[in-house]
Amino acid sequence: MTYEEFKEKVGSVILTGEGNCPVTPVVQMLQGKWKLQILYELCIKCPMRFGELKKVLKPITNTALTNALKELEADELVQRIQYNEMPLRVEYSLTEKGRDLLPVFYAISQWGMKYIP
Amino acid sequence: MTYEEFKEKVGSVILTGEGNCPVTPVVQMLQGKWKLQILYELCIKCPMRFGELKKVLKPITNTALTNALKELEADELVQRIQYNEMPLRVEYSLTEKGRDLLPVFYAISQWGMKYIP
DNA sequence: CCGTATCCCGCGAGATACTG
DNA sequence: CAGTATCTCGCGGGATACGG
Known about the structure:
By secondary structure, the first copy, chain A, is mainly alpha-helical. Chain A has seven helices and three strands, in the order αααβααββαα.
């Protein structure tokens, strides 16, 4: 794809240049050491429990996982459901908004397969 | 796109789960406050001079711009060419590897248009 | 089991001044 | 013009211990 094709497809409205990169806010939302890996694991298996995520993202700490999940929830990419059983059970799943990131992941993966050895 | 379609298209090799998210290393490469905006500006106009980039990314400092450009160059997303004139002229341009990120930007923009008000 | 509450530390980024 | 050289500061994330 050339930039001209890109511009034509996306529309010029959000392509004003001068620092108004339309991509930046989205990537900001995905920034942080763990967010992408969490979303990725939730793509593979959904829903997942807190402890399950913690196990799969092995060196992650409680604090980091909690914070990342909270931010993802605030951005409506992930949904938290708490079941008041004993012992407590909490499940995290992707929202539609979160699942719609799959084409983005796909594009990135394609690029990675071409350029990452 | 469902995850099953995703898996089929990308191939299961890199989809091992257990923390091996294929997307993460790519986004790591794009991380930093300014890298994406630099790439984006270079999509719009290429090549650009140091001072030109600095003007367009207004509140950026010399240090930040220099560091970001160095890292982008190390990752072979951007090429630096120096002309030993007086006064000095340096031009930055996207490499093919960098230009090939456009489909990624496109996917992200599509998502953004759907979900960012 | 699923977190919160602290404390701590390093690193990315800002500010400012200076150079080939 | 296109950077480099320092210094500083804030905050994201790690470690550990405790609470509902």
